[in-house]
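Entry 12.
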Amino acid sequence: MLMSARSNRAHAVFVGVCALVTLSSAVQLSTLPTTVPLIPLRGGGEALRRQLSHEDLKAEFHGTPDTADARVYAKDVTGGEHRSLWHDLPLFEVNPETAKPTGALNFVCEIPKWTRKKFEIATKEALNPIKQDEKKGQLRSFKKGDIYFNYGCFPRTWEDPDFVHSEVGVGGDNDPLDVCEIGLR
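Predicted 3D structure (tokens):
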């Protein structure tokens, strides 16, 4: 779990594992691969010699909290390299001892339960840090109070704006697939 203790709940950003997720027909857990390929390094080169897990990451803060320049980066505790929560963290959690999928999905929590600041993965920035969303130059928050669930996205997913589903009638939002996690924490 990637957590921040910088302030009570406002900057609590974490990567958790969803043990049970319902995704209509988007992902079927029965179609999990039996092995997962090693993570390629950005810019070419050899693949990492181990599977990246949510347990391998910690939060690293840059900038001043509660400002537009504040960022939360994911740092690999083993190799010391910064990682993208969107591109480097696998969608399916892998058992580090067997290198096989566990059946759980990794989930990047952008807005923790019982908070109201609207954080998101910065999809257009290098390493995709988490930042507070802005609208017309103002930091965004939910105006009707704290949210009652963990909100975020699945890593290594993308909603294609050019694909219009017949039942929905609109394209994707050009971001990772949104998730509402309604577990006990």
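Annotation: The CA atoms of residues 16 and 107 lie 5 Å apart. The chain has no helices and twelve strands.
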